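[job 0412] stage=fold_complex status=start
inputs:
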Amino acid sequence: MSLVLPQRPEPDPQLRSTLVRALRDFLPPDAVLEAEEERRPYECDGLSAYRQLPMVVVLPRTVGEVRQVMRLCHSLGVPVVARGAGTGLSGGALPLADGVLLSLARFKSILDIDPVNRTARVQPGVRNLAISEAVAPHGLYYAPDPSSQIACTIGGNVAENSGGVHCLKYGLTVHNVLKIRLVTVEGEIIEVGADAPDAPGYDLLALLIGSEGMLGVVVEVTVRLLPLPERAQVVLAAFDDVEKAGTAVGEIIAAGIIPAGLEMMDGPAIQAAEDFVHAGYPTAARAILLCEVDGTNQEVSEHILQVRAVLERCGATEVRTAGDEAERLRFWQGRKSAFPAVGRISPDYYCMDGTIPRRHLPEVLRRTAELSAEYALPVANVFHAGDGNMHPLILFDANKPGELERAEALGGAILELCVEVGGTITGEHGVGIEKIGQMCVQFQPEELEQFRAVKRAFDPRELLNPGKGVPTPRRCSEYRALPDRHGHDHVHGHGEDPRP
Amino acid sequence: MSLVLPQRPEPDPQLRSTLVRALRDFLPPDAVLEAEEERRPYECDGLSAYRQLPMVVVLPRTVGEVRQVMRLCHSLGVPVVARGAGTGLSGGALPLADGVLLSLARFKSILDIDPVNRTARVQPGVRNLAISEAVAPHGLYYAPDPSSQIACTIGGNVAENSGGVHCLKYGLTVHNVLKIRLVTVEGEIIEVGADAPDAPGYDLLALLIGSEGMLGVVVEVTVRLLPLPERAQVVLAAFDDVEKAGTAVGEIIAAGIIPAGLEMMDGPAIQAAEDFVHAGYPTAARAILLCEVDGTNQEVSEHILQVRAVLERCGATEVRTAGDEAERLRFWQGRKSAFPAVGRISPDYYCMDGTIPRRHLPEVLRRTAELSAEYALPVANVFHAGDGNMHPLILFDANKPGELERAEALGGAILELCVEVGGTITGEHGVGIEKIGQMCVQFQPEELEQFRAVKRAFDPRELLNPGKGVPTPRRCSEYRALPDRHGHDHVHGHGEDPRP
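[job 0412] stage=fold_complex status=done
writing structure:
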């Protein structure tokens, strides 16, 4: 199996009881979970193929308690994995048998809404959608919208630099967060970012966003809010050929339109979504595109006409504009439910998250189909086409011997294909534990060593989420030696480097 | 004097001759400057009050040569200061008497223009404006436009995270750079960033942008290009009161318009600019606003009407829309020439770069005027009003005893005023050597220590631009003890932190 859990020491019963006794000194009884059945809900995140019971779960309520937990774990040398809602898809919140699982679930307050400066200061356990709901009375919203936005928390979004269908126009989490308050591994507080356009000193804000809990524990987030657009409208286009749909994506962007969302689904994904939520999708199509534009009434009307013209020119067999807001939401409902929809038709699925330069879309779809045949596992494709962020869903049955391993190998091969055409192994789901092997393909040894040096600058003893995100040199040697690795070591962007 | 040069060891003649001999082994004669008259042009950057001859100047032509320079300096323990065009305003490129000044002036090639993906890959010594000129035939441009754009280089822009009048709408350098190739202090190459929307691993790209040459030497930059807007139009509004102009800024933003530029000048700045470039400014006004909108013809026409209405409602005494492109450029010419214009009317000037939350604009202007009276030095105000980035220009005469020191003390007091109202000590000019004392006011000791840890992760021996950007703990103690410090130690954003 290419994907192995990090090797950890056996939990030391003596250390465990010392830790728990000390935790109970300052935390109320319901904030320290020891019993196996209480720890069970925390054994995995959205990458449910990997499970590990944590040594103990803590659920602090205040920043002061988080600081005390960190100080204690630091003094005892106990590793800590922080967790939001556990909806992450790369195993970033997978616990450690010898570690503390630190849940931020009780940090659910919206601390401040400033409609004039268009910011909100929130605790990390606030759900993504709850921010938009809270600020809607001011005509504002928070733009990044991962599919899990009803459940996922802003702290988790920060950890994974989450995107969503609207990030083509409005950016990822990193583009929509202004400030973060962080508890360090030693229990200190640092605040990074600023309300101003730039902040003096090194840009630790961007460094922390997407760092998967490996540099500190986020205890407060100030987000940027946007005015709700006057109008949003979506066009659905059907194609009898996936490559034509891929071409249309490039043509829309080239026409100078930046859609609020530009999503593609292939035949298997369309069928699964339609069966599940009855979005009205044309199930005979080989691919559909959903193109949303937003802005003033005038802009939207103009852009919809332009988009329709491009889609027809690119050979769409059907182009449908949502007739009203209910239909617009239904169109999106299909796309946003694609993962659970696929979950209904397959015992298990494995969602990949590679990105590619848009121009390689047709080629990558063709080669993905070839790999799917080679590994004898179906693949349904759903993706943020506008920014080249693919989400191939590999369908398999973990109860059939060898299928999980084959799904992983196929997933790895697809990611290495993304790297080969100049893309990356993750667009928005993070590396976590899932893609740690492929990090050895994406980056040169010097680059990985620089990541490790940055990690040490925050966490010299490797206590924060160890084993995730950045592979050790040994791990890379092992990964490169794997017999079932499909890809090779072409590394993006370095091909033309005549290193002297 | 509050601003002291970093204390450095005397250059060691033995080490110097060893270094020069080794440099001449792999660099051609014209790439190693030893003679005093050859080193003289490198003794300062745009913060010309501080001058220091470097031990030796090197002008490599290839990445391989840069790597060899770095390896050599690393092995000998010689510090290195990298330099672009030397237009920086905070002394970030001030040389060291015991160090190498590494000029990137010969890295002037545009390596690749990709009009489909709208990117350009350029060497660090390419001038900011040269990029826009080179891509203009494709209908594209590079958005960040510092006042010095005709001379400053993209490498320097990356080092300082430069902005410009258009950064309100289009962002700072960090928002417009996709990838960087960096030579590390040990002479290794690492590449950070990606063509994809997100890159796996820690976000070193944002960390490096604005790091003032303290983490590595940038040898290649891939920038994002934007389509030239169909039309740009500018409105000039005159006010008989600076506070009214400040209010109008907030009202324009609140109306939902994001201008491409929103700039303010006060009476002394208007007069100086008008005398210099005859931009047609109303010299009787106490303040003018320049508000540019860009986009489609339709959008621009609508927004200009809205902007004019807001300005009139806010009490503008005159509102003028540029009649043609020539007039539009003339309006901007006045603003962009404000620094040299002030340079004509005063023997010396000192340009500050604080940012403040927009709502404090009227208060900060009033208190700046009070400080100006207190220190008996005139101040001309020019600023990126839309994003609250102030550029007070303190007029003084360095030949008059005590005036430089008074100008510095006044500048420091203005910056601490910015911090007090929730702003920052620099918006786009960087910390360099100039604001290193104020860093002790802006940040808590834990935050500064985290900056130092990040620095060590790239440069453990402090060889890259030492003494700039991040103060040592000792420096902060000295700064806080200064008798002529005007401000106090209120630190932005931490007021409400009930640290347990």
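[job 0412] summary: Confidence is low (pLDDT under 50) at residues 487-500 of chain A.
[job 0412] exit 0
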